[in-house]
Design a protein that fits this description.
Radius of gyration: 16 Å
Oligomer: single chain
Number of strands: 4
Structural class: alpha+beta
Mean pLDDT: 85
Distance between the termini: 17 Å
Number of helices: 3
Strand order of the largest sheet: 1-3
Largest sheet: 2 strands, antiparallel
């Protein structure tokens, strides 16, 4: 596996903020927008856990937040979510 193959794996076309993970299933942020969205989601989720009273209410607020975040990440990931085992030949 060459370093250039790994670098190429994390390059995305304009309009995408995430690239598929190099190994496994999911995506990783590769632009400032993707990192901002990820860090913002973590901050809001931690606030919900800290400030919302009751386990059921936390789940009722947190689950839609999580699902919305995952939907947005999926829609902004070039190639969508799929299993990867090393750099692929997307280009």
């Amino acid at each position: 596996m060459k370093l250039r193959d790994i670098e190429r794996h994390f390059e995305v076309r304009e309009g995408y903020w995430f690239a598929p993970k190099l190994f496994g299933w999911g995506a990783t942020p590769v632009t400032w927008q993707g990192w901002l969205l990820t860090l913002g989601f973590i901050a809001v989720f931690l606030l919900v856990v800290a400030l919302v009273p009751g386990e059921l209410l936390k789940a009722a607020v947190g689950l839609p937040l999580l699902l919305g975040f995952l939907w947005l990440v999926h829609s902004k990931t070039e190639g969508g979510f799929s299993w990867h085992w090393g750099p692929d030949k997307r280009r």
